[in-house]
Specification:
By secondary structure, the chain is α+β, with helices and mostly antiparallel strands. The chain has helices spanning 10-22, 39-47, 58-62, 69-75, 81-90, 110-123, 173-176, 235-243, 245-250, 267-281, 296-305, 318-330, 386-401, and strands at 2-6, 27-31, 52-53, 95-97, 102-105, 127-129, 134-139, 145-149, 153-156, 158-161, 182-188, 190-193, 206-214, 220-227, 231-233, 254-260, 332-337, 339-341, 347-352, 357-358, 363-364, 370-372. The chain has two domains: 2-187 and 345-401, FAD/NAD(P)-binding domain (3-Layer(bba) Sandwich); 191-341, no CATH class. The longest helix is centred in the last third of the chain and has 16 residues, at 386-401.
Amino acid sequence: MQVVIIGGGAAGFFSALSVKEHFPAADVTILEKSLKVLAKVKISGGGRCNVTHACFDNVALSKFYPRGEKYLRKAFEEFNAQSTIDWFKKRNIILETLPDNCIFPKSNSSQTIIDCFVNEANNKGITIKLQSSVKSISKNELNQFLIQTNDSEIIADKVIVTIGGQPKRNGLEWLENLGHKIIEPFPSLFTFNMPGNPISELMGNVVEKTTVKIESTKLIASGPLLVTHWGMSGPAILKLSAWGARILAEKNYEFAILVNWLDDLKEDQLRNQLELIILKNGDKKITNLNPFPMTNRLWNFLLEKTSINKEIRWKELGKKNLNKLINTLINDRYEVKGKTTFKEEFVTAGGISLEEVDFRKMESRRVEGLFFAGEVLDIDGVTGGFNFQAAWTTGWIAGKKVLA
Ligand SMILES: Cc1cc2nc3c(=O)[nH]c(=O)nc-3n(C[C@H](O)[C@H](O)[C@H](O)COP(=O)(O)OP(=O)(O)OC[C@H]3O[C@@H](n4cnc5c(N)ncnc54)[C@H](O)[C@@H]3O)c2cc1C
């Protein structure tokens, strides 16, 4: 049986290897449109490839996906983060878990993963055709697939589509023409631009525990926040960009955020803390006594933003300024105008609608014998190895079921 995989990326290779593992006699070909396979794996995780995340509860793991959670929860029963670790271990690839639970090859090089896939594909007799860009597929009278590429027509019994995220809808047109519903693609995982905002002078400042909300929405995320020279980044911002990807696209990336610089501290708790400081350290100058886990530069910036005379003593703060300070510390408003792609990891949300796919097999509900895996689906995760995990999981299942 001829199995053709369209796209030589993470999901494409994992699908191809899964086909050969489950059906060693199958004739497997990967069609890759560019000159190189696994290009994104190469640059992933800053060149180190964050292959998965140390989260071994399938329900908890699925919660890291703004789109696809419900479908992946079931799929993880078949292949999850532990399966990924075991898969690489079987191929003598040593992985290492970092304190933030992100898992990388111990070599600290994405080339280790690429070499593993390419060697394994060569050993298993998988054919790789480069510069083969698929333009359309149809079926012939024998119920086989006719795959039209830029320079040839290829026949296949089964097809697995792993073309990755398509930034524009027209990249999915040939799949739409087969009857699949497409969810409009839009970017996820980006940082927030705040042009001209003086906060950018504090670039490099990190506050480890913050909570950030998008004004007038229910979107909220917690985690470290990094001030950059263009605005704000860090896990809290990236998570918000992922969960809010669609809403923020609709707002044309113009919105306001409210930052709680003190984790999720509530107003009355903060008021008690500040009143205690006034009581105990009332004679100290406000500028010199920064009671919070933030740099003195940020502390002084927030005092200035609140229009508090930094030279006054704590006991001279007064009720009005106390209220203003509380508001700045836990409800600090910034206007966002535009986004910047996160250099470490960005993904495309949207793609093939998940309703169109039988996740037990990853087979299309529209076209028998056609399977999907990876980012071409309307699945995306936050940063931390989740996007590759989705590629491995869906690729594994597609390969296992393609000839079953
Ligand atoms: C800079 C960067 C860093 C990242 N780092 C991480 C990370 O550390 N951890 C993580 O989990 N995720 C990371 N991601 C996300 C991750 O790379 C993707 O989610 C993952 O590569 C998706 O795999 P895929 O095989 O579905 O798609 P891709 O890797 O995009 O592969 C699709 C392949 O299909 C080919 N193709 C497309 N159209 C056609 C066609 N018509 N015919 C033939 N071939 C075609 C493409 O050329 C490509 O080679 C990162 C992303 C970026 C951009």
